[in-house]
Amino acid sequence: MTRLLHRALKTPPMAVSAEGITFTDAGGKTYIDACGGAAVSCLGHGHPDVLAAIHRQADQVAYAHTGFFTTEAAEGLGERLVADAPEGISHAYLVSGGSEAVEAALKMARQYFAEKGETQRRHVIARRQSYHGNTLGALAVGGNEWRRAQFRPLLMEAHHIAPCYAYREQRQTESDAEYAVRAAGELEAKIEELGAENVIAFVAEPVVGATAGAVPPVADYFKRIREICDRNGILLILDEVMCGMGRTGTLHACEQEGIAPDLMTIAKGLGGGYQPIGAVLLNEKIHDAFAQGSGFFQHGHTYMGHPMAAAAALAVQEVIARDDLLANVRAMGAYLRERLEDAFGQHANVGDVRGRGLFQAIELVADRETKAPFDPAAKLNKHIKAQAMERGLMVYPMGGTIDGVHGDHVLLAPPFVVGREDVDTIVARLSDAVDAALAEVAA
Ligand code: PMP
């Protein structure tokens, strides 16, 4: 009997070992990790260099409170993150995960304006199709109604605009450029409605992860978003917790949009799951406002800058750079996409195949022509997950509701070390699992 409260209240299989891209459970069954958990395990499991770095750090200093000490591991990670960051980023703030990073970024944005005497600013704008974490602030700005609904009375006020979701929201008569203008135009209209002087920031995931499955923006959408934020004097926070740290083929997803944020959140692939870690990357003007104002950021957590987490993340990032794994993300990402198109491109119940790098997804529909989704009560995504696990495959299926439209998606985010044969096996098992799940739902 388990004494743990599990997510689904049902005890999942017991993992007893994990190496490379494979998990083994207590019964000896193996599973290919094709989603890195939730796009976390970018290096795969049991990497000796990362384990050695964690051991070294444990021997040296396992924990030091940042109110008393800094450590070589935390300083080294900060140096590395800033050196590789988008233009203007000057500092990193280390926390323990994605939600903590989002909370810290929201408070940094508010304090930035407070330091400048603009204390009337209180509005944050985000998008309906988004997930920014499960803590109350992050949940408030997130747009996933399923996760928010019963907690709504506890959530701070936040404002939501339409996502950039070409498959469902781009009109047939509209070019990408026209759609980018219309979708980004919603931000301008919302800022105008709230009064630019009252707005703190706009928050968005460059490639949407956990609400809709690897939805990339259309070209120039984020260029316009950046320009609208600048013109109205509000901050741009990019949440790259899921899509960042190499997942899409460049270290940061925003590089492919040709923009830099004021604040950026990262987690998941930062430590690759070897330790819990996240970070906020902030630009110089935010750091300067704190330095010239109160002299500190009014925030903090007991485990921020944790040396073992920092050492693990530094090692993960060093291996990715040393082994040029982003080249493999691009090559295997393209191959995975090709194989997904082969398997699902003409499938009667797959409406869209999309993504970037090793961050790819399929969207399931009851009818390809009308794009009608499956009845949420059928819980197709749960059937797919069970059928995939049965076949020794970990994928990340989700159901979501965007503007009243339910969608079932399967997200794939395999480790960056995945090879061609692995991709073939992943797609073959997924294809079987999807068909078996569809048959179950139809029955
Ligand atoms: N932001 C995004 C974009 C995410 O995908 C997630 C996690 N799925 C979070 C924030 C929250 O991160 P965590 O679960 O580490 O708190």
TrEMBL record:
<dbReference type="InterPro" id="IPR015421">
    <property type="entry name" value="PyrdxlP-dep_Trfase_major"/>
</dbReference>
<comment type="similarity">
    <text>Belongs to the class-III pyridoxal-phosphate-dependent aminotransferase family.</text>
</comment>
<protein>
    <submittedName>
        <fullName>Adenosylmethionine-8-amino-7-oxononanoate aminotransferase</fullName>
    </submittedName>
</protein>
<keyword id="KW-0663">Pyridoxal phosphate</keyword>
<dbReference type="GO" id="GO:0005829">
    <property type="term" value="C:cytosol"/>
</dbReference>
<dbReference type="InterPro" id="IPR049704">
    <property type="entry name" value="Aminotrans_3_PPA_site"/>
</dbReference>
<dbReference type="InterPro" id="IPR015422">
    <property type="entry name" value="PyrdxlP-dep_Trfase_small"/>
</dbReference>
<dbReference type="Pfam" id="PF00202">
    <property type="entry name" value="Aminotran_3"/>
</dbReference>
<keyword id="KW-0808">Transferase</keyword>
<keyword id="KW-0032">Aminotransferase</keyword>
<dbReference type="GO" id="GO:0008483">
    <property type="term" value="F:transaminase activity"/>
</dbReference>
<dbReference type="InterPro" id="IPR005814">
    <property type="entry name" value="Aminotrans_3"/>
</dbReference>
<dbReference type="InterPro" id="IPR015424">
    <property type="entry name" value="PyrdxlP-dep_Trfase"/>
</dbReference>
<dbReference type="GO" id="GO:0030170">
    <property type="term" value="F:pyridoxal phosphate binding"/>
</dbReference>
